[in-house]
């Protein structure tokens, strides 16, 4: 199927979905089958956080559980900042979303009972007071992504364009029209390095989180916050970017950049150790290694900074080898690949950025501040997670909001829309870069200062240091962007710098410690819980030269 106009660089679809993870694919599959839909992914079509999710998806699926209980657990985790309506909406639509996935054929793990009947096997994770996490063994994300992709590939109304990286949104305002509807996006086709104009009546950002802004992350390379940065540049408000969730134990090895050492290891008795082999968690919390994730992450960060070391260690070698083999076959095998034998020695670990709780402000229909622009999944801020995400609620949010957004788009179809005339991407003023090193250097610098100054434990001074550095980087990147042809690395760097700026702005505004935002300068929690909302209209925008695009 081709929706290209005669002009090689422009195509038209009714709906353009930027991102093909759990959120984007679920949305595509829930739209009416007579709508022309494009889903673009910037790398290969399976790549994104969804593929790597291990644990599962939370939903109330057993008679002894209740919506009230799931709601209460989510509110407790969220540190007083969850939007109760968003929580209730997500939880109450959970079972239907799971049934939809099961009907598509996602191979959820089951238990077989004595009477021969099967039921879903549900696990329990941190923060959940009931067993309510449905999963496909320890590779739920892979099963989910593969099943959704398979259906999308068999849907004749959906065009899947991989290796297309969206650059910027096209809006009525940018074109000088009398409305500010979203009209599509420019995207770089990485296979021929041409910039294409993807026109659409409805545009949905489903482009995942921004954890790659930190030096260490559990996320794949593409989590560069592109959707958040594009929405911000287009004029959308963004909220709560200071709440970045860190996973305490990611394997520290140059080749294992995003491999998680599951919390289950600590659950089964693994010890956290300093480089000299001493345990330290009891200094921070009487629950030791079993303290909640954010406390463990903070303790590790504190000890690393105190000692000036690059990593600490996780040790389960005191358990019998047979136990380790049978309980942690995947983790054991993966560590062995990197020369670490968990039955004999501790594994080096660092905490790693894991989940972006904030994002583009969107409502229960996925609507953003711009007409016909929607945001769903990790890129969106719906209010569900508050100041701290509860495990396994994020995939649920992707599916529930994708389905709600599809419904809203379907209901809006009665309003006829005209195609506008949109200019092609203009590269007449730019040349090939003569100094690619600027991009790679700035990538490294940005991720390191974000780690050191805007990481797990913050202070005003650290944030100010980061502020100064990001201001400089933004200027430098913008100058570079304005003068040279775009490349995927440059686009991602530009977005990372914008997202870093947004995180720092939000963190500077929050004068308290709450949930995932912990600052030594304001250890107290304010009586009133308030979201941090920032708007491009009121933020000072750098004056930059930009020779690209209309
Ligand atoms: C290791 C790991 C384990 C996790 N475990 C769990 C778990 O057990 N349970 C749970 O609920 N959550 C878990 N999470 C979180 C959860 O996986 C994510 O929040 C969720 O998958 C996000 O889905 P998404 O569709 O929003 O984005 P993603 O799955 O990240 O997909 C993003 C998509 O957007 C595309 N994209 C991005 N930018 C652009 C651009 N500029 N142009 C074009 N396309 C673009 C990407 O190519 C990709 O297709 C885990 C995350 C990680 C990293």
| Average pLDDT reading | 93
Distance between the termini: 29 Å
Structural class: alpha/beta
How much strand? 15-25%
Radius of gyration: 23 Å
Low-pLDDT residue spans: 541-547
The shape is globular
Largest sheet: 7 strands, mixed
Q: What percent of residues adopt helix (DSSP H or I)? A: 25-40%
The bound ligands are: flavin-adenine dinucleotide
How many beta-strand segments?
20
Number of helices: 15
Overview of this structure, please?
Strands 1, 2, 8, 9, 10, 11 and 18 form a seven-stranded mixed β-sheet that branches. A four-stranded mixed β-sheet has the order 19-17-12-20, with helices on one face. The chain has 15 helices and 20 strands. The model is unreliable at 541-547 (pLDDT under 50). By secondary structure, the chain is an alpha/beta fold. The protein is globular, with a radius of gyration of 23 Å. Helices cover 34% and strands 17% of the residues. The chain has helices spanning 22-30, 49-52, 67-77, 84-92, 94-104, 140-153, 226-234, 263-267, 293-307, 321-327, 329-337, 393-412, 437-453, 460-483, 488-509; strands at residues 10-18, 37-40, 57-58, 110-112, 118-120, 122-123, 133-134, 158-161, 164-171, 182-189, 194-205, 238-239, 244-251, 271-273, 312-315, 347-356, 359-361, 373-375, 380-381, 533-534. Helix 13 (437-453) packs parallel to helix 15 (488-509). The protein binds flavin-adenine dinucleotide. Flavin-adenine dinucleotide is lined by residues 18-24, 40-43, 47-50, 52-57, 140-141, 164-166, 206-208, 218-219, 222, 226, 260, 355, 377-379, 392, 394-395, 398.
